[in-house]
TrEMBL record:
This is Gfo/Idh/MocA family oxidoreductase. Pfam families: GFO_IDH_MocA (PF01408), GFO_IDH_MocA_C3 (PF22725). Residues 148-281 form the GFO/IDH/MocA-like oxidoreductase domain. Keywords: Oxidoreductase. Residues 366-392 are annotated as: Disordered. One of its GO terms (molecular function) is nucleotide binding. Residues 22-137 form the Gfo/Idh/MocA-like oxidoreductase N-terminal domain. It comes from Streptomyces liangshanensis. InterPro entries: Gfo/Idh/MocA-like_OxRdtase_N, Gfo/Idh/MocA_oxidrdct_glycsds, GFO_IDH_MocA-like_dom, NAD(P)-bd_dom_sf.
Length: 392
């Protein structure tokens, strides 16, 4: 196979000092912030200095629970001098607005997925960041975990030959059964495509390259859902987006993919399977680790081999760390804003195709994403040399 390899691209014309840990503020103190803060407060290369939320009391509670010294409103935190990088954990409808405010304040930004809800807003964020000389990174960061990283190295080394087709499945009954506040997961900017799709699509692009067109069919089998747990259990709410989508994807390389994203199946199933000229690869998609399985050999006697994930453990927030290290090195992050824009462009094209009943071209491209280097360890301190400088 002609391996897809990429060199780490430097940020043009930028001189950086490899020194102290990057100072981080988290904006959005909802459920996901607890996972981020648990991880980030354990990394020596970042230090969390503040938490912000629309409800300052919620920010204070989250900050105090994790030993973070400051909290307040978004505007208050963005004015702080001890914040280099903002982690934007707001609801999808606020992603672009908060990111633009952070960029205007001179802060780098890591955003939860999706980057924005439309192309114009997403492009505005990236263009503003370029103009301000700051960097945007974006979830998901599961692609930086040892599971998908191992699969990426195996694929690049020709473990299954040239990729030809890919099949991904994500189906289950939906988060309304367990989430205490699931309404936003069925609103514009969510649903199975925007909520779960980025995990699959980011891995697809990272492993197989950019997408050039999609053809999709979508359904809303139930116009209303009911909250299944928590204080609002039994409350009905409207469904605003398709909860089942079937998608055919064409990659620039010629690889063809088939995907299902569904919140309408009682059967829970996840699958990510690449078929190549010399075998089949099962890519781990549930979390940051998990083994890669390879089916190789002649058709009459092909056998499965399990390859354990190779690399240091990672968790939600590792993308913030990778961005922080990239900033100090004057390099572009792997989970970049450009990659997130392409994934957003694909998802919007899927929506448009389902609405039109016709294929839709994906106009954007995506940068090649090199695997993390051998021995890359999120838990290791690397930003403790205050007198070293690098010129990009």
């Amino acid at each position: 196979m002609a391996a897809r390899r990429a060199q780490r691209r430097a940020l043009p014309g930028r001189s950086t000092r490899v020194s102290a840990p990057v100072r981080v503020a988290v904006i959005g103190a909802g459920d996901i912030s607890d996972q981020y803060l648990t991880t980030l407060t354990g990394y020596p290369d970042v230090v969390v200095t503040a938490v912000a939320d629309l409800v300052p009391a919620r920010a204070r509670a989250r900050a105090q629970a994790h030993g973070i010294p400051a909290w307040g409103t978004t505007a208050e935190v963005l004015r702080r001098d001890d914040v280099d990088l903002v982690v934007n954990l707001t609801v999808p409808a606020a992603h672009a607005e908060v990111a633009l405010a952070a960029v205007a304040a001179g802060k780098h930004v890591w955003g939860e997925k999706p980057l924005a809800l439309d192309r114009a807003s997403a492009r505005a964020v990236l263009d503003a960041a370029d103009a301000a000389g700051v960097v945007v990174g974006n979830a998901p960061d599961t692609v930086l975990g040892p599971g998908i990283q191992t699969a990426q190295r195996l694929l690049a080394d020709g473990a299954i030959g040239e990729p030809r087709t890919v099949l991904t499945l994500m189906q289950g009954p939906g988060p309304d059964h367990w989430h205490p506040r699931p309404q936003f997961l069925f609103a514009r900017g969510a649903g199975p495509l925007f909520d779960i799709g980025p995990y699959y699509l980011t891995a697809l692009v990272q492993l197989l390259g950019p997408v050039v067109s999609v053809s999709a069919v979508g359904q809303i089998p139930r116009a209303e859902r009911v909250v299944g747990s928590g204080p609002d259990a039994g409350t009905a709410f409207p469904v605003e987006v398709p909860t089942h989508l079937s998608v055919v994807t064409t990659f620039a390389s010629g690889t063809v993919g088939t995907s299902v994203y569904s919140f309408d199946s009682p059967l829970r199933r996840q699958l990510f399977e690449i078929t190549g000229s010399d075998g089949v690869m099962e890519v781990p998609v549930s979390g940051f680790d998990g083994p890669t399985r390879l089916l190789t050999g002649p058709p009459s006697g092909a056998t499965w081999t399990t390859v354990p994930a190779d690399g240091a453990p990672a968790d939600r927030g590792v993308g913030v760390l990778e961005l922080a290290r990239a900033l100090r090195a004057g390099e572009r992050p792997r989970a970049s804003g450009a990659l997130a824009y392409h994934v957003l462009d694909i998802m919007l094209a899927v929506e448009e195709s389902a609405a039109l009943g016709a294929p839709v071209v994906v106009a954007s491209g995506a940068p090649e994403v090199p695997p993390v280097p051998p021995g890359w360890d999120p838990a290791a301190p690397t930003l403790d040399a205050p007198d070293r400088t690098e010129q990009s």
